[in-house]
Structure formats: C-alpha cells, structure tokens
Design a protein that fits this description.
- One of its GO terms (molecular function) is transcription cis-regulatory region binding.
- With 192 residues, the protein is of the alpha/beta class.
- The chain has 2 domains: 102 residues, Response regulator (Rossmann fold); 61 residues, Arc Repressor Mutant, subunit A (Orthogonal Bundle), CATH 1.10.10.
- A 5-stranded parallel sheet has the order 2-1-3-4-5, sandwiched between helices.
- α1 links the parallel β1 and β2.
- The radius of gyration is 25 Å and the shape is elongated.
- The N and C termini lie far apart (57 Å).
- The mean pLDDT is 92.
Length: 192
C-alpha cells in the first residue's frame, strides 16, 4: 500500500518539486497546503500517513501546525526548513516532529527519512496501544477484586467462590467479567 503524504509549504514551486519527487519515489501525495492552518485542517480531513511541513508559513507556522497534529496524534510530521539552529531543532523536537530535513531537499535523503519516520511512528503507535491494553486489564482486575471483596463480605463467600460467582454470572449473561463486576458494584452502591 502506498504511503499517503500531505505537503505544506507556502511556496508553490517547492510543493510542486516535492510532489514530483515523492511520486517518482512511489508515494501518493493526497494534498497540498500553503499555510499551517490549512495543513492541520487537511490532516484532520484526509488522514495522511505522513505530513511534510515547512517551518515558515502564514496563518500558523510549521511548528504550531506540527504541535497540533502531534497533540491529536493524526500523523507523523517531517519538518522542512532552511534553518538549522539548535533552538529551532529543540522546538521541533518539543512539538513532536519525528524528522527534520534541511532545504534544499536532496531526493536521495527523502525516502530513507520517510521510511525511518514511518517506522518510528508505527512503533510509537504500537506502544501506545499496548499501554492502553495494560491499563484496561489493570482496571478490569481492580474492578473484579472490588466486586469479589463485596461478595465475600455480603454473602460470606471465600475468595475462590466469589470469583466463581462472578465468572458464572458473566457466562450466564454473556457479559465480560468486568461488566458483571461493575454491575455488582453499582448494586452495592444502591444498597448502601
């Protein structure tokens, strides 16, 4: 599947050159923007796999656009700029930029940077998903433990029997153990 890229640069000639280079390298350019705000809006709408942003653009500069795109976790951002000051690089890093390319862009540098950036983005997405799953499992375990404790106290059950009761209720009602535990705790709140 082709990598879908959005280009944002206030200079139409640079956008055209980038589009041609990217297409020659097998990428699909799904949109072009001439300012940062349009780049953010188009990223929200088109959901590209990668966004190439110039730093100096009207309405919203590339760093502010990168920060917005990163905050919403819409796509990885590569920053294109003629500037390489340490301060600008630090700002780009803090804005969530995953790659930094100095203009004029050399065709040979573009593909490796895009591929490495995409790999890092996918690794980050995998870690975020794994973390969310771990948090969900922990919350489920906590909920089941609370419900089990309530059943042990209110029905004078031992721990194994309280767990089996939650398990049995889940199977009989075709619900998850977490949903049953939540229902038990809700019922406990109504009784209290």
């Amino acid at each position: 599947m082709e990598t879908r890229i959005l280009i944002a640069d206030d200079e139409a000639l640079i956008r055209m050159n980038l589009r041609e280079t990217l297409q020659e390298q097998g990428y699909l350019v799904v949109g072009e923007a001439g300012d940062g705000q349009s780049a953010v809006n188009m990223t929200r709408q088109l959901r590209p796999d990668l966004v190439l942003l110039d730093v100096k653009m009207p309405h919203m500069d590339g760093l502010a656009a990168a920060r917005a795109i990163h905050t919403e976790a819409l796509a990885p951002v590569l920053l294109l700029t003629a500037y390489s000051s340490r301060e600008l690089v630090a700002e780009a890093r803090d804005a969530g930029v995953l790659g930094y390319l100095i203009k004029p862009v050399r065709d040979a540098e573009l593909m490796p940077l895009i591929e490495v950036t995409m790999a890092r983005w996918n690794e980050q997405a995998g870690r975020k998903k794994e973390l969310a799953q771990l948090r969900d499992r922990l919350e489920t375990r906590k909920m089941i433990e609370r419900a089990k404790g309530y059943l042990m106290d209110s029905q004078n059950l031992n721990e194994a029997d309280a767990f089996r009761k939650i398990q049995q209720l889940a199977m009989n009602s075709r619900k998850t153990m977490r949903e049953v535990a939540q229902a038990i705790m809700l019922a406990q709140q109504l009784v209290s």
